[in-house]
Specification:
By secondary structure, the chain is an all-alpha fold. The protein has a domain at 53-107 and 147-260. Helices cover 51% and strands 2% of the residues. The longest helix is centred in the middle third of the chain and has 25 residues, at 148-172. It starts with 28 loop residues before the first helix and ends in a 9-residue tail after the last helix.
Length: 261
């Protein structure tokens, strides 16, 4: 240790830790499970885009809703609309999947999840990351994360459409298992969307006096409670939308008998 006089500053050096981490717990387990969970969502999403069994009246698979081309079955079209006409013959999911997908990709919670699990930046607290430098989200492409708020507006629309699909199923087949699967999914999707940090900020984040805006304060309080559950809602809604989508497709393929669906 360096000898010092009472008036001289004490020189300290950082601990020279040569191992990746001193943690002895299974710190790698959470990044691994996150990687597997998010990867399953990506793989399923790609399959759902190319699969054409997305509608059996009154159910429409969430990954294909809204269906906006004339190639869509008539009952699958939103309000009977087909604004993309005959020229669009690709899978309907390609038209809209980028909106909720972009919302999740730029979500604050999902950023942390895939930064840690896919990029190992860092993989866990008190664990060294393999990257030599850190530039944050100030450069391309990560600077595009700043458009998260605009994806939020689009996600609200998609969430309302999924709720509309669930209501239609509830009206036409109230006892169907698929109906209630779609209802639960719509609730979770919209709860996750409203729990977004951007939603909380938009609701009343810039107000200086809550007392002057009682309605916005109540809305902010409600969204804040949802925001505290943002992480579990992110996972629950991700698996619910996959489960609901897969269920509809299995019914459409005849793998699940429709009279009992």
């Amino acid at each position: 240790m360096t000898q010092t006089t009472p008036d001289a500053p004490v020189r300290r050096q950082r601990a020279q830790v040569k191992v990746r981490t001193l943690r002895t717990d299974r710190w790698w387990l959470v990044p691994l499970l996150t990687f597997l969970g998010l990867s399953s969502f990506l793989v399923y999403g790609i399959w759902a885009i190319i699969d054409n069994s997305y509608f059996v009246d009154p159910y429409i698979a969430p990954f294909a809703s809204p269906c906006l081309a004339t190639s869509c079955p008539e009952g699958a079209r939103l309000f009977g609309w087909a604004p993309f006409g005959d020229w669009y013959a690709l899978p309907p999911g390609l038209l809209i999947l980028g909106l909720p997908g972009g919302f999740r990709l730029t979500c604050y919670y999902y950023r942390k999840s895939y930064y840690r699990s896919f990029w190992l930046s860092p993989p866990a607290c008190a664990v060294q990351e393999p990257h030599g430098k850190y530039t944050g989200e100030r450069r391309f492409p990560l600077i595009l994360q700043n458009i998260h708020r605009y994806f939020f507006y689009a996600a609200i629309v998609i969430g309302l459409i999924l709720a509309y699909d669930a209501v239609l199923a509830l009206v036409h087949k109230p006892t169907g298992l698929g109906t209630w699967i779609l209802v639960v999914n719509a609730v979770l999707i919209n709860a996750y969307t409203l729990s977004c940090h951007s939603c909380r900020h938009i609701t009343a984040g810039r107000l200086n006096h809550f007392s002057r805006h009682p309605l916005r304060y109540r809305a902010w309080t409600f969204v804040s409670k949802l925001n505290a559950k943002h992480q579990p809602l992110a996972w629950a809604s991700m698996f619910s939308v996959m489960g609901a989508d897969l269920y509809v497709r299995l019914v459409a393929k005849g793998i699940i008998a429709f009279p009992y669906a």
